[in-house]
Design goal:
It catalyses: a quinone + NADH + H(+) = a quinol + NAD(+). This protein is α/β, with parallel strands linked by helices and 457 residues long. The chain has a domain at 4-39 and 80-111 and 268-343: FAD/NAD(P)-binding domain (3-Layer(bba) Sandwich), CATH 3.50.50. The strands form 8 sheets. The chain has a 6-stranded mixed β-sheet. The protein binds flavin-adenine dinucleotide.
């Protein structure tokens, strides 16, 4: 019998589990000719990105090579970007004009940053979605401390060390918590000219509380935790326009920030947004109980499945499954099982999933979590957070590496080496930005002046 062509787009939380399920079953491997396509050749463990951004976990330790997985599971993998999906012709167009036909398609391409058409947002803020975003963020923070150390006035230091995070959801809060811990407890003691009052971290959130997805008592706990550490919270504040280094709010005020990070939301990638399918307000594709995409009339499209962050699966209470890694994993496992059972001529019950809860890391030694309805916060919650993510890491090697990172971070001094070239981290405008003049370097900009004092800048 000729094998059926199964094409999996995206090797993230959802796609990886579809591929692994097929690879683990001899019968499924004999039935399906499976091809996994991802624009990267690695899987990235997003929940640990904030930890990477402050150097608590090493960059490479949260990525896992998809090619290794494919080799061990006897499936094919290519690194390429899907640019168009033709549902009529049953083929996918790739970045280099390669056309890949399929019999069954699993779309699991995750999400991209949503700027909600706020003018200047994309140009003047930094996203926080990928391992590269996290890596550059860390390098930038350390580099700005190096510049602030050489600045001549308090105003200059304050300008350089003003960090603003737009979006007070889980990601924004985790980034702010890790950042404030890093700058105050690890970097500050190493930079004698920088004072605590020179640093500012601000979260701008449109809602009336941070982490709207968490229970209100946890939002209040995290709010107190951050404010105690000096984070400024601007709640009920919508960013309406962003200029270089300045955010305009709906109430007419502005907030200055040398580094502005945008964590306000996500949407499906363009390759999914273009599809003639039924979708909900946030752009996710409506799927039925078997994760099949629904057409605009609400009819399932045979053999086209959508899962993970780009899928909207209706729950019994009438709401949609949240776009979380645990939802993506559950969907990936369900579709994997469906396809394995299909190879055996059997079917599976419909998809049902109840999230176990949530875990929000607040930097070293603190977290809030809710697991199976039980809330917890503080040090024990942090230990559970670390243990839960260790267990979820893909492969023993990554588990060992991340485990050692956590231990080292607890016991040893923070490594503040910054190995990237300053030009890789700061824009030309930032390097040339005039921050005022001081008595010793009259007329020269801090960035460019400090730059001239180092090799390789
Ligand atoms: C900073 C951060 C922190 C997070 N923290 C948490 C957390 O603590 N808990 C939690 O539950 N969730 C968290 N999430 C959300 C979680 O990561 C997502 O819900 C989850 O990754 C969704 O899985 P997915 O498989 O749909 O997409 P992803 O895991 O994002 O995988 C999508 C894959 O598709 C690939 N791809 C994209 N476009 C294309 C294309 N056109 N062609 C080919 N390949 C493509 C990508 O390279 C990627 O490998 C976090 C996300 C971020 C960004």
């Amino acid at each position: 019998m000729e094998k059926k062509r199964l094409l999996i787009l995206g090797g993230g939380f959802a796609g990886l589990d579809v591929a692994r399920s097929i690879g683990n079953s001899k019968q499924a491997r004999a039935y399906w000719d499976t091809l996994l396509i991802d624009k990267e050749n690695f899987f990235q463990f997003n929940p640990l990105l904030p930890a990477v951004a402050v150097g608590a976990v090493e960059t490479r330790h949260i990525v896992y090579p998809l090619r290794d997985m494919a080799r061990h599971r006897h499936i094919r993998f290519i690194k390429n970007k899907a640019t168009k999906i033709d549902l009529e012709r049953r083929e996918v167009l790739l970045h280099n004009d390669l056309v890949v036909p399929y019999d069954t398609l699993a779309i699991a391409v995750g999400s991209v940053t949503n700027y909600y058409d706020v003018p200047g947002a994309q140009e003047n803020t930094r996203p926080f979605k990928t391992i590269v975003d996290a890596m550059y963020f860390r390098a930038r923070v350390v580099e700005l401390f190096e510049m602030a150390e050489q600045a001549e006035t308090e105003d200059q230091r304050k300008k350089l060390l003003a960090f603003v995070i737009v979006g007070g959801g889980v990601t924004g809060v985790e980034v702010a918590a890790e950042l404030i811990d890093m700058v105050q407890n690890r970097l500050l003691p190493k930079y004698p000219n920088v004072r605590r009052t020179d640093i500012s971290v601000t979260i701008i959130e449109v809602g009336d509380r941070i982490i709207p997805a968490a229970r209100p008592s946890h939002s209040a706990y995290v709010q107190r935790f951050l404010v105690r550490r000096g984070v400024r919270l601007l709640l009920g504040s919508a960013a309406t326009r962003i200029e270089p280094k300045r955010i305009h709010l709906k109430n007419g005020t502005t907030v200055e920030g040398f580094t502005i990070v945008w964590t306000a939301g996500v949407r499906p990638p363009d390759v999914v947004a273009q599809l003639p399918l039924m979708r909900i307000k946030d752009g996710r594709v409506r799927v039925d109980d078997y994760l099949r995409a629904l057409d605009p009339a609400g009819k399932p499209v045979e053999n086209v499945f959508v899962l993970g962050d780009c899928a909207a699966s209706l729950r019994q209470d009438g709401t949609y499954q949240p776009a979380l890694s645990q939802t993506a994993i559950a969907m990936g496992l369900h579709l994997g099982k469906q396809l394995v059972e299909r190879a055996k001529g059997r079917s599976v019950p419909p998809f049902q999933f109840k999230p176990a809860g949530y875990i929000i890391s607040l930097g070293k030694n603190s977290s809030v979590l809710e697991l199976f309805g039980i809330p917890l916060s503080g040090r024990l919650a942090w230990l559970l957070w670390a243990a839960a993510y260790l267990i979820k890491m893909v492969g023993l090697r990554k588990q060992i590496e991340v485990g050692i990172d956590h231990l080292t971070h607890l016991l040893a001094e923070h490594d503040s080496s910054q190995i990237l070239n300053r030009r890789q981290i700061l824009s030309d405008e930032e390097l040339n930005l005039s921050l005022g003049t001081g008595p010793h370097r009259r007329g020269e900009a801090v960035g460019s002046t400090a730059g001239k004092s180092q090799d390789g800048v």
